[in-house]
Design goal:
Layout: H1 2-5, H2 9-18, H3 30-43, H4 49-58, H5 65-75, H6 77-85, E1 102-107, E2 117-122
Antiparallel strand pairs: 1-2
Helix pairs in contact: 3-5
Length: 124
């Protein structure tokens, strides 16, 4: 909306707050929310909360994230427990001496300002 009006988004937020225009959450009962979450979980069982919130917004519903989390726990309690029990299997390796194996990782969070940080650590 801000782009359409030719404003910065903070300016738009300022004027919305100044004139008392609020974005309200959709009034939706817990039973109706549970039904929608159940429909979503049958089509996308491995998807998480963020995907679910997007699904609800696509259907024109604005619901608090806490309510969506609680609804997911009510609807898919067993699935949540099974997903949390799954462990990541990591490979075991043995390094024969120091400086034989190095690990590299990059941090690109500050790339907007031209800052990229790479870190290296000895895997011995």
């Amino acid at each position: 909306l801000a782009k359409m009006l030719g404003l910065h988004r903070n300016t738009l937020r300022y004027y919305l707050r100044l004139y008392g225009v609020e974005r309200k959450f959709t009034e939706l009962s817990d039973d109706d929310l549970d039904k929608l979450v159940r429909v979503f979980k049958t089509t996308k069982p491995e998807s998480g909360i963020r995907y679910l919130v997007g699904f609800l917004r696509r259907h024109g519903l604005r619901v608090q994230r806490r309510r969506v989390t609680l609804s997911t726990r009510r609807v898919d309690g067993l699935g949540r427990v099974l997903r949390n029990r799954r462990t990541i299997r990591r490979r075991k390796y043995k390094s024969t001496r120091p400086n034989y194996l190095w690990h590299c990782d990059g941090h690109h969070k500050l790339i907007l300002w031209g800052i990229v940080i790479h870190g290296f650590i000895d895997g011995y």
